[in-house]
Design a protein that fits this description.
Blueprint lengths: L15 H9 L5 H8 L6 H7 L2 H7 L7 H5 L25 H4 L2 H17 L3 E2 L2 E2 L6 H13 L4 H18 L1 H6 L3 E2 H4 L3 E7 L5 E8 L6 H5 L2 H19 L18 E6 L10 H17 L4 E7 L6 H10 L2 H4 L2 E4 L27 H4 L5 E2 L7 H8 L2 H4 L3 H14 L22
Parallel strand pairs: 3-9, 5-6, 6-7, 7-8
Antiparallel strand pairs: 1-2, 4-5
Helix pairs in contact: 7-9, 8-9, 13-14
């Protein structure tokens, strides 16, 4: 027994995995081999004596350890880290149904904070833009997404442009606190709100292009004309009461936050194209297409001559079906009320109803009467020295008498409005 004692300790602990087969084949000492190669698990003292814990840890990693776990083993003397899986995983809040079934809308909302940050403006049509739990905000984003056929990138670009435009233009102030010349815009635009029996309201804007007194006066200042049109539009948008919404509109369903537009072309010539009209109309289309998407329910062109028929045929070629289906030309304005049987009596008499004329019962933007300009002869008299007034009296009277014949003729009141605005998506 004494001669075989070193045999149990000659192999270093680091070589233990390779030494076990050698010990097993030692036929000279079967008893010692059996005790050495088959230690009982409960014999803790013998195991500790033969292979210290430190050496065992370094030489024999447990088979349960994966290579990744072995790499992450703590250094000697350090406590092992707590397993990550022991931490409770926070449950994600359930998405609203309108986001769950419309991934594009959910993506749009993910981009909204960046959009608001880049534009520095968070108001659209009187709605403070918040998050996806706010119904008015959801409805606004749905309209921009609809206008771009579900394309999130295009919707984001349009919303960004619209917010920047509202920040710069301040259209609410244009409608509430700005006044417009009666000579230029008096009698050209109105707003009416008709109530259904069930309490719902129909908002209608009226553009009376046949009321234009002078083309150059009304359309000459393009920026001023656009501001007037924007002011009228903002009055109508306010009546839609989008900020008071308590439910989200169906993306593919009916939208109650839309208006009716009526363009009256009575006594308007479509054969003469005026550059001022074309410029003002083009700018209006650009602004309205960008800043007021999906606010139009239907658009009626009334008192249009037969020659306009070609225009509506052409519109079907160049515009989408979703846009052209909203356009309705009516040759006789008195037939307009027939399109709204439940509201017929509330329409003005000129349009087939029983209500007073628009000038008597409709709303409009703030209009200021212009002061009459001083007569040319009086201005000339005031410029002359007083000492010469008497000497020139006879000549001055002669000039006044001859003025009606010699003065240049004022432009005729030609309310020509091109058909350019007809295919425009004012409120797409």
């Amino acid at each position: 027994m004494a001669d075989q004692q070193p045999e149990k300790t000659t192999a270093p602990a680091a070589d233990a995995p390779e030494s076990q087969p050698t010990v097993v084949t030692n036929t000279d000492t079967p008893k010692e081999t059996t005790e050495t190669t088959e230690p009982q698990p409960e014999n803790k003292t013998e195991t500790t004596t033969a292979q210290p814990a430190v050496e065992t840890t370094a030489a024999q990693p447990t088979t349960a350890e994966t290579p990744a776990e072995a790499d992450k083993a703590p250094a000697e003397g350090q406590q092992p880290p707590q397993a990550a899986e022991e931490k409770p995983v926070a449950e994600q809040p359930e998405q609203p149904a309108y986001l769950a079934k419309n991934p594009a809308l959910a993506q749009f909302f993910e981009r909204l904070p960046a959009i608001l940050s880049s534009t520095g403006h968070a108001e659209m049509w009187g709605v403070p833009l918040k998050d996806s739990s706010d119904a008015p905000t959801v409805n606004v984003l749905i309209k921009f997404l609809r206008a771009n056929e579900g394309n999130v990138k295009l919707a984001e670009e349009q919303l960004t442009k619209a917010l920047k435009w509202r920040k710069e233009m301040n259209p609410s102030a244009l409608a509430e606190s700005t006044s417009y010349s009666a000579t230029k815009f008096g009698g050209l635009g109105y707003l009416t709100v008709y109530k259904e029996a069930n309490g719902t309201e129909t908002v209608v804007t009226w553009n009376i292009y046949g009321g234009v007194k002078d083309i150059n006066t009304t359309f000459g200042d393009m920026d001023e004309f656009v501001k007037w049109r924007v002011a009228l539009m903002e009055l109508a948008v306010k009546e839609l009461k989008m900020a008071e919404a308590t439910s989200v509109i169906d993306y593919d369903g009916e939208d109650p936050y839309q208006m009716i537009q009526v363009h009256d072309y009575l006594n308007v010539s479509f054969l003469r194209l005026n550059p001022a009209i074309k410029a003002a109309t083009k700018k209006t289309i650009e602004v309205f297409t960008t800043a007021y998407p999906e606010l139009l329910r239907e658009k009626f062109f009334v008192n249009v001559p037969a020659i306009m028929g070609w225009m509506f045929a052409a519109m079907k070629v160049f515009l989408s079906k979703n846009t052209t289906r909203k356009f309705h030309p009516i040759s006789n304005g008195a037939n307009l009320a027939r399109e709204f049987p439940s509201l017929k009596e509330q329409f003005p008499k000129a349009y087939g109803g029983s209500a007073p004329a628009l000038q008597e019962g409709a709303r409009t933007v703030n209009i200021t009467q212009d002061e009459p300009a001083p007569a040319a002869a009086e201005a000339a008299t005031n410029d002359q020295p007083k000492e010469q007034a008497k000497e020139n009296k006879e000549e001055e009277i002669a000039q006044q008498e001859s003025k009606p014949e010699s003065a240049p003729e004022q432009p005729k009141a030609d309310p020509a409005v091109t058909a350019l605005e007809a295919p425009a998506t004012d409120a797409k």
